[in-house]
Sequence to fold (760 residues):
Amino acid sequence: MSAASNGAQPNPPSGSSEQIVVKPGRHREASLYHALAGAGAGDGRTLAELREAALSAFARSELPVWRRSGFWTTSFAELDEALLATREQPGEDWKAVSREHPRGAGVPDFVRDAIPDRDRAGRIVQLDSSIVHVELDPKLAERGVILCSLEDAAREHEELFAKWYSKRLTIDRHKLEAANAAFWSGGAFLYVPDGLLVEDPFEIVYAIGGPGVAQYGRTLVIGGRSSDFRVHEHNLAADFGDASETTGGDTYGGEQAQSLHAGAFEMYLQDNARCRLAQVQDWSLPRSRHDGGHAGQVFDASTRFVGVGRDAYCHWLPALLGGHLVRHHLELAVSEPGGDMAFRGLFFTEAEEHLDTFAVDLHETGPSGGDVHWRGAATGSSRASFEGLIQIDPGAQKTHTYLQIHTLMLSPKARLDAIPSVLVSADDVSASHGGTVGELDEASIFYMASRGLDRPSAVRLLVEGFFEPLLGQLEDEPLEELVRTKIAAKLAAARDDIEAYATAR
Amino acid sequence: MADLEIINLHVRTEDREILKGVNLNIDKGEIHALMGPNGSGKSTLANTLLGHPSYEVTEGKVVFKGEDITEAEAHERAKAGLFLAFQYPVSIPGVSVANFLRMAINAKQDEPIKVKEFGVKLQHAIDLLDVDRAFTSRHLNDGFSGGEKKRAEILQMAMLSPDVAILDETDSGLDIDALRTVAEGVQRLHDEQGLGALIITHYQRILHYVKPQFVHILMDGRIVLEGGVELVERLEREGYDQIRQEFGGSGELAA
Fold:
């Protein structure tokens, strides 16, 4: 376990907090991990032009590798390139290898089983390459809410699409990003008009039905002025063991054990808009759900950007709970004065999983507020790497932000790294970070045992307690329950491992 | 046969022998006080009785309700009806007092406790210990003052209704109000539920509020003197040094 800060100064020891005293002109060196922090690819180009530009970026780039010297390397080199795209002859254009399903095919059973039934404002479900289900409360449709596939939005809501599509997302930083921008199909589009308050969540589901799938998911969400709404995204995959069976007359995968989700998500909150955005990502669901389940090797390389406008607010909480090899770039940017945000996140890796999360708390103007709080745990021989970056751009005066990251190690073979970094280019701001690295506390376990709780129950309580400060902030009971259940399942699956760790110490 | 029998108990931790043959019998409904100077082995005894993994029993045994529990795991001892009020209760962030209590009760019984029954039980314990209802929704011991932690210990004891409770220096560091509340709580659990208790203390103060029937004095890993409440008064007059001199000086004690 380790933790280090960017630049020359080593990270303070666990449990401490460091106040960055900012002096004019002082500029801490950023890491290899850069914020997007700039204009996206949109820039007046048409969708066709963007796809073409992305295609050429795709063709000329290699599978990406992210390296944090001395800490971790996240390499997608083991991903089978044949999954990504195909062409008949060298020299011809690449085409997506898409797995399509009929529109109106409905919500697949494995999705229905995994996501609890509940009240929703609307729901859109993408299975593999196609949107298979869209529903929207008719009352909301009447009031101008739009929920449809992004493909449809490009045709039917041209003006909105042209204004916002890829406004802040790039399309060519790496091969998988380019693949998404070139080949995306289906996709989700949500527009909440000015002044509308919606209590129930809009649910966006990306599901992978089996091996051999490259899912290029693309989401665009626009919150109108003074709108107030919730978005829940779910990412999940079917049991790959079942997937050799036919689905819609078509077989999955064959020899393939891999699938890919290359995602791009962008959300823009206009003046005074408020959104609670949550994501439950668990591509390895079958393993944790029942013994003998067949979790596939789902690779996930996604970029998510949330732009917070004037006096707007976003509470964003990703729960990253499974995937064979996952690289997330998550960027929450306050772009106009008065914007505020709470950036929360939790992750829990298990078995052989590798998770690399880069979370950016970006302040482009001031006054603005930020509050970043992440918690992560790891079992098995999994690898979880987290870098949190606070970036305060020149002119973003009167910004006050804080980043904390807490980790909990549950296995001797797991590795957790958490690196907070700070890049400040304004002089009237406060930015600080802190964190803890922890293991299960045997004194706490004995305390609970003396009250009659056996070891697995005590461990579960401790781990739930560890995540509790974030779970409660979902402010949504079904979602909280879902995440709790997944955490419990992961602990149950790792019981021997956790026991061995305690004995080894 | 007493409910809790401690027979010739020898305990070591790492490479040091701390208890060197302790014998003690405690029955349900009896209040015992175990007193002794710092380092005499009081906390070792408390932790060993609940099965703390860092303490190794090298000789002798602990029998509870006729069962040899010397090798039993801590949670099994708790389920059998033993309880330890900790000298330094740990905090459990993220877990509310009420939730923890419900889990602990459910661990002891086959069927989960009914919501209503739990509510009634909790209210009763709250009244007994003079705490706020809001207290039970706070995270267990997280940010609690010393007095609040000790009240939370007694609250748990009241909810779990053990047959025999060991109170490990529950009185240390308490102001007089907290001390009185804690002591009265123990006394009432004794009177109402027939609680048996081993009150381990360094000071005499708590024994002004809870009246022990039996008093034991532990020095250098052995019980050197036993008697009734008059022993407390003697200790108050003479101090540990006097007794130490009488029973063999500061080093090894005579058998």
Notes: The interface with chain B takes residues 441-444, 446-455, 457, 461-462, 464-469 of chain A (CB under 8 Å). The longest strand of chain A covers residues 197-208. The two ends of chain A are 15 Å apart (CA to CA). Chain A has eleven helices and 27 strands.
